[in-house]
Design a protein that fits this description.
Helices cover 64% and strands 0% of the residues. By secondary structure, the protein is an all-alpha fold.
């Protein structure tokens, strides 16, 4: 457990540094999204079997940017804007060599079936972590209930699911023939 706590602390520092600049832009959605980002990063790490020393930072970056386009671009068709913002961050921080992997993590995070392509371990763990969080632990992928509950205690929902459902319904009213654009991958 100390290994998880150590990495959780590393995630917290990196995530806070990455997400704080978005606080004004996200407004009332900042805390719910911030907590979702933390939960997904922690769950992703718990789902991984192997780790590269850079994985903590890669997961933190993917977690912060994976849904950010909902608010920065005011769209529920947010994968492209989210991926572009992540790519810009990577370029500005001399990490462009991570671009393909993080873009794939963002693109595939709503994939229904298992991902089997390049960067499989991080992409698949990230996909499962997001689904685990959105299902509020109902789909657990073998993660212990105690770990899931601790993650929610540390990073409460703060109406995140309501926020996402509201965005979905606004999008659905405007685009009834394209209700789930993020699922087109």
């Amino acid at each position: 457990m100390s290994d998880r706590r150590t990495h959780s602390h590393l995630f917290e520092e990196k995530i806070e540094a990455l997400i704080t600049p978005f606080e004004r832009r996200l407004g009332k959605h900042y805390l719910p999204y911030r907590n979702h980002v933390h939960r997904v990063a922690n769950l992703c790490w718990a789902l991984k079997h192997n780790s590269d020393p850079d994985d903590v930072e890669k997961i933190a970056i993917a977690a912060v940017y994976h849904d950010i386009g909902i608010w920065t671009d005011s769209t529920f068709d947010y994968l492209d804007p989210s991926r572009r913002m992540a790519s810009s961050y990577l370029s500005q921080n001399n990490k462009s060599d991570w671009n393909e992997e993080i873009a794939t993590m963002i693109d595939m995070h709503h994939k229904i079936t298992s991902y089997k392509g390049p960067f499989r371990e991080n992409v698949e763990a990230f996909r499962k972590a997001d689904l685990l969080d959105l299902s509020m632990g109902k789909i657990s992928f073998g993660i212990k209930r105690q770990f899931i509950e601790e993650n929610y205690r540390r990073f409460p929902l703060k109406d995140f699911h309501f926020t996402i459902l509201s965005a979905f319904f606004r999008h659905f009213i405007r685009h009834p023939l394209n209700p789930l654009p993020m699922m087109k991958k």
